[in-house]
Each structure stands twice: as C-alpha cells, then as structure tokens.
Amino acid sequence: MAEGTVAAGEAPLFDPFAEGFTADPYPQYARLRESAPVYEHPLGFWVLTRYADVSALLRSNSSVEERHVNPGPLSQLREEVYGDRLPRADGLSMLDRDPPDHTRLRRLVAKAFTPKAVRALRPRITELVDGMLDEMVAARRVDLVPALAFPLPFAVIAEMLGTPPTDHERVRDLSGMVVRSLEPVLDPDVLRAIDSAYQELSGIAADMIAWKRHNPADDLLTALINAEEDGDVLSDEELIAQVLLLYIAGHETTVNLISGGTLALLRHPDQFAALRADPGLVPNAVEEMLRYDSPVQESRRITLEPTTIGGVEIPKGTFVLAILASANRDERQWGEDADSLRLDREGARNHLSFGSGVHHCLGASLARLEASVVFERMVSRFGDLALDGDVTWNGRINLRGPAALPVVTRPA
Ligand code: HEM
Which of 100, 182, 224, 295 has the most CB atoms less than 10 A away? Predict the structure, then answer.
C-alpha cells in the first residue's frame, strides 16, 4: 500500500460526524495533513488535505459532471431517491459541467457578469450595509447573522437578478434547502426535500425568465437572457440552472465570509485594533479571513484517469474530496503560523477558498467587494463590537459558518 494512504477497514481518519467537527474541523484536518494527506476513506472516496495536492487535483483532468453518474456515495443515494425523476435543469449549471459544455456556459454567463457590472454595485452595497449597521447600532444587542451577514449578500444577488421583492422570502427559504445538496453526506429525507425545493425554485426562475423576456431591464437576468456568442445563447433550461446557481453561490457562501470574518476579528482583538488603526488593510484582511476560515470547505471531483497526487496513484473514476479549508492552513504553504490570523499576511490571496482551475469562482470579485464594504464600514461605524454570547454553527460540513453570532455594538 502506498505511503500516506490508509487501508479500508481501519477507523476513518476523516470523520465529519465527529463531536465538535463543525465548530472546529481544523485539528482533524491537521492530523490528516500529517499522517494521511492522500487518504482513502473506508467508504470508497478519497480525501486530500495538503495545499499542493488540493491545488493539483483542481487543475488536473478531473470531472465534476461525472458526479451525477459516478457511484460516489452521494450519487448512489441520489439515484435511489430520484430514480429518473431528476429535475430537468439539474446538472446543467456550469458548476456541474465539464468542458466543453462548461466553457460555453461560463463564457455566456461571464458576458453578463462583468467586472464593470460588479464595480458599479459599490454604491448600492454601501447603502445596504449602512442601513443594516444603523439598525444594529440602534438595537445594540443583535445576532449579526440575520442582521447583516445573511441579508446583505442575499439582497445583492436577488436585486442583481431582478427578483420581485414579493418572491425574496420564498427564494431565500428554497435556496437554503437546495444548497444542502452541496453537503457530502445526505439522508434520503433531506434529498427529497431538496428535490421539491429545487422544483419550486426552478418554477420561480422560469416565471422570472418568461416575464423578463417581455420586460427587459438593466439587470443580470436580462443580460443572461441576451448573452450571445456566435449565435449561441442559453436555452431556457440552462438559464434556469445558472440562475439557481447564482442565487445559491451568491449568498450561501458570502454569509460565511462576513460572519466567519467578523468572528475571527472578535477572537483576535489585536488584529481588530490593527484594522481600525489602518482601514487600508481591509483588502488584504478579507483575503486573510478567506484563508483563515474557508466559507466553502471543500470541492469534489471524479478522476478521469489514474492520477498521481502527492506521490500516490488515485485510480480512474474515484470520488475525491479536496479540502480547501485544510489547504488554507497547510504549514508547508503558509509557514509555522498557518493557524494564526494575520491581516497583513503576505501572499494571503493565494488561498484556495475560491477554488482553482476552470471552476475558479466566477463571483470572487463580488464576494470581495461585499466583504470589503462590510469591514470598511464596520470599523468606521462601530466604536466597539464584542461577542455577547455563544456562537452556534450551522452544522454544515461544506458551506460551514456561524448560524448565530450574538454581538453587542457601540457607535463610534
Ligand atoms: C464556484 C467559493 C461567492 C458564483 C465557486 C467555487 C468555490 C467558490 C470554491 C468552485 C467550486 C468547485 O471547484 O467545485 C465561493 C466563496 C464565495 C463565493 C468562498 C464567497 C465568499 C460567490 C458569489 C457568486 C459566486 C458572490 C455569484 C454571485 C460562483 C459560480 C461558480 C462558483 C457561478 C461556478 C464557476 C464554474 O463552475 O466555472 N465558488 N464563492 N460565488 N462561484 Fe463562488
């Protein structure tokens, strides 16, 4: 057996159900990096935890599409639960496609989701943040998750897509369910609930698309409908799939950056003080927050050919979890203080929180902009911000973040 692997049958070294894992998965990741960086889980999937290995997999000739047909632990279950009833748009988002389909879908969406369109959002994002911070100051004792971390990215993506305000609440609840499909392990009841939420959300998106075709506006959805290259456009099913992806990727991730980043500052008062003293640190601070506590903890791939990673050959057709959060704490990449938050860390932007390779996050600049505005405004608006009770975690393994972050505020 190759060095660094563990034979099937031994107690699993990767156990996301272990006590305390979602509150702090980092000790488990550290053990894996040290003793089994290319780990074959007894359930048949593999786990990568070192920076170089995670990065190599994401850049390798591997597949996301195969997740839907490959008997990985999740796909098998999906098959049992769904049979042939998989929603028609399911699997059509760019995140679920390999090149050349992926290249085509991504290019069409990128035409609508331009850096210029993102930059233009700064005034509106600032207005939204200021409104939320005003309410937080007035309330004094608040839970930062429902007060700021969640509603901000949701409002931004919902407005970008031109979602009717009357649909906001329903879309928010439905995407909160659909996003659970990104978790590595699900039981059949949850899968059924995801399926029905997916159908309903697809229906809402289809209605919006139909309406927008006749009522074009200056928004992302209209731009997506009109995106065209060499006569090629997105079909209705493809449009639905990209809209659902944007809703979910647009807020279920950034919420963890805002809440996890704030928590990191509250737990490192010296760093918080440094940020107050020099708000020019904000852009690098956001990168370091992304590195320190990755809002998306892992990516998944299926190998398309025997792939040697970290000196170990992973067979063709293997389901591999690449733990971004662990790569972001790898001492080999970051040095001895990999576990410390250092807002002025050089090279912080090399984190893998936005993934790597062809699926590198399309919304990275939007997420960076939202978080930058939050922390710029936070240090100028709050004289003080302190934890005011216990943090609870959302219990997710992949899109992991605080479920509640009680704080007490004092105006500047
Ligand atoms: C893809 C993370 C915010 C849209 C990804 C991937 C990661 C990621 C890790 C790659 C997944 C993989 O390779 O399997 C994050 C994080 C965010 C964030 C940590 C916030 C802190 C956003 C936002 C949007 C967005 C705000 C859009 C509004 C996308 C899209 C993809 C993607 C469309 C698919 C790209 C592709 O498959 O080519 N994101 N994301 N993300 N993200 Fe983000």
Answer: 295
Is residue 62 within 8 Å of 54, Cβ to Cβ? no
Domain boundaries, the chain: 26-411
CB-CB contact of 58 with 300 (8 Å): no
Q: How far apart are CA 39 and CA 34, in angstroms?
A: 11
pLDDT, tens digit, 9 for 90 and up, residues 262-316: 999 999 999 999 999 999 999 999 999 999 999 999 999 999 999 999 999 999 9
* Ligand 1 atom nearest to 370, measured from its CA: 26
Q: How far apart are CA 7 and CA 229, in angstroms?
A: 50
Could you read off the pLDDT of 209-243 as tens digits, one per residue?
999 999 999 899 999 999 998 899 999 999 999 99
Q: Per CATH, is 26-411 categorized as 1.10.630.10?
A: yes
d(CA 7, CA 207): 51
What is 2-28 written as a DSSP string? -TT---TTSPPS--TTSTTTTT--HHH
Neighbours of 332 (CB within 10 A): 12
Residue whose pair of structure tokens reads 């009680």 in the numeric block:
406
Helical ranges in 45-163 per DSSP H: 51-59, 73-82, 101-112, 115-119, 122-139, 144, 151-160
CA of 137 to the centre of ligand 1 (A): 31
Specify the residue with its C-alpha closest to ligand 1, atom 1.
Answer: 361
Check if the interface score ipTM surpasses 0.95. Answer: yes
What residues line ligand 1, using a CB cutoff of 6 Å? 94-95, 106, 157, 245-246, 249-250, 253-254, 257, 295-296, 299, 353-355, 359, 361-363, 366-367
